[in-house]
Amino acid sequence: MNDQICGAPVVGYLDYARVGPVGGRAVGAMAEAVGLAARSGPGELARLFGLSDAARGSAARLVGAGVDEVALVPSTSNGLFTVAAGLRGAGVVLVPRGEFPANVYPWVRFAGRGGPDVRFVEPDGGRHVTADLVRRHLTPEVTALAVSAVDSLSGHVAPLAALKEVLGPDRLLIVDAIQGLGAVPLEVDAADVLVSGGQKWLRAGWGAAVLLVRDRCAGRLEPGLGGWAGVTEPFAERHPAPALPGAAAHLATNPDFPAAAALGAAIDGLLAGGGPAVVGTRIRAVLADLLERARRAGAEVLLDGLGERERAGIGAFRLPGHDPAAVHRALEAAGVITTRRGEWIRLSPHACTPAAAADLFTEALRALVPGAGHARTYTYTDHKEQTCPTT
């Protein structure tokens, strides 16, 4: 498969938690949708709308939901703001400190403006969000917990089922899933509300995100940002018209159709390749190899000791005695693309990351720490034999 067509990154690209280079299926679907929009005949427009509807169905299959429980919104942040706007006068929402800002600002902005008050809680061990942590902070006024399915720095996977069990049926579990959806299996059944864009692990680019609102809690969210696209009779003489059923009630306007088509195609490719269970096994093996190489160079791994299923596709390390900015620059100069967060260097490979990327990483570490051992502990399929399922 032609890497240029597939949008394959450079060999040493280990930064999918930041941006997943757009896969070939998504590129093709987006081009098809743009072509339909360019012609804009009656048949073409109907097909364009159909691509968006199909993407909604694909997203519903990925999260194990009914199609009516899913809508396509512009981004993860937009989806979270939509939820915050819908929780009118809803008591208190718990938000762990250290959350990615996208899962902080919606709650902060709507607190005092008709939305729930915010109570920040300190995760166990600095990064872990556990059932015990939530239990300690539950009071009668708490009505929701907003949490990332996967921590964006450590890669820790939140125990969503256990969190929901503690919250019970009367409190909402609101999940920012962008760092896990499509990369590893998640306990999505536990989420009452889930939001995830497609520009990272799904390799679908920007402009479309999944918004899941379970039927079991749909009545608790008002269409705070719902616009004309979210009502049954948008051209009625009197407004507001009744809201559409399900998640569609929260649509402000039509989706970005090419972006929606790309997201649907990327999800279809993922499911055709075995889904998150198969992809996640590969991703975790690649990451485990990289982290072991870092340890052999004397690195400290953030939240080292996590179980195999407790870490997703993200791991972070630091080299004691080395300036993290200098380490990051040295890796980049060697062709290894990562993200630096303060003192930590974040690694986030994909299933199609080639073995050559680990070798580049090893050589860069050897240059930084001469004499360090870097024997490979894990093995995984070479890029020549395995392409990303989303391509």
pLDDT < 50 runs, ≥5 residues? 1-6, 374-378, 380-385
Percent of residues in β-strands: 5-15%
The main pleated sheet reads as: 7 strands, mixed
Structural class, from secondary structure content?
Answer: alpha/beta
Helix content: 25-40%
What is the average of the pLDDT values?
A: 92
Distance between the termini: 9 Å
- Total domain count: 2
Q: Would you identify the CATH H-level superfamily of the largest domain?
A: Type I PLP-dependent aspartate aminotransferase-like (Major domain)
Query: Count of DSSP E strands?
Result: 11
The outline comes out as globular
Strand order of the largest sheet: 1-7-6-5-4-2-3
CATH class of the largest domain: Alpha Beta
Would you identify the CATH architecture of the largest domain? 3-Layer(aba) Sandwich
The CATH topology of the largest domain corresponds to Aspartate Aminotransferase, domain 2
Q: Explain this structure to me?
A:
The chain has 391 residues and is α/β, with parallel strands linked by helices. The protein has two domains: 3-20 and 275-368, Aspartate Aminotransferase, domain 1 (Alpha-Beta Complex), CATH 3.90.1150.10; 24-272, Aspartate Aminotransferase, domain 2, CATH 3.40.640. 35% of the residues lie in helices and 13% in strands. It has helices at residues 3-6, 24-39, 42-63, 76-86, 105-110, 131-137, 160-167, 257-272, 275-296, 324-333, 355-368; strands at 70-73, 92-96, 117-121, 142-148, 172-176, 193-197, 209-213, 300-301, 315-318, 339-341, 344-347. The strands form two sheets. The protein has a seven-stranded mixed beta sheet with strand order 1-7-6-5-4-2-3, sandwiched between helices. The chain has a four-stranded antiparallel beta sheet with strand order 8-9-11-10, covered by helices on one side. Strand 2, helix 5 and strand 3 form a beta-alpha-beta unit.
